[in-house]
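pinned: reference chain
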Amino acid sequence: MITKYTKNFESHETYTRELSGYEFVKDYFENVPQIIEINSRKDIYSIDFVRVDIPPITILTKVLDQNFYTDLSKLFSEFAICSNNNLKIGSAEGGTKLFYLDRIGRINSKLLDKDLVVKTLDSIRCFDHGYVVPSQGDFHERNISTNGYLLDFEGGGWNLLSTDIATFLWHSLFVGNYFGPK
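pinned: its structure tokens
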């Protein structure tokens, strides 16, 4: 019997991004869970994946939280090979666009001059154009299982290499494990 994981979506837009990202990522990476069933009826959107984090396998967050070691060298090697083989100069898509560029306009802080931040970022050409690689687009400990499978494909596409590295370092090493659900 196949154990499944169901991912539900709040909108057709996020559901569509997940499917598109999944199709993109599986062309470049080996450890991507298989889709069992796709559901879209009325306002209900979900995808059933083969569950890849059956104990003792878990998501990386839990291992980091308990200070256990896990060997992800195969995943990082695959990411490095994929990046080296497909690196190109191009426009940011996927997670870079979704989690970085599209959020610039939502800056809401009394400490920052929103117009100045937007104007400054708009003037930095490499912020949306630069070295891009095929990636899952949200590469951090909550989206990686300890057996090296990638999870969550909404940001899949051609992403800036710099945002993938920044996301992993910031989220996995600094705040994700601290602020994420326990």
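why pinned: The CA atoms of residues 71 and 146 lie 8 Å apart. The beta strands are 4-9, 35-41, 44-50, 88-91, 129-135, 157-160.
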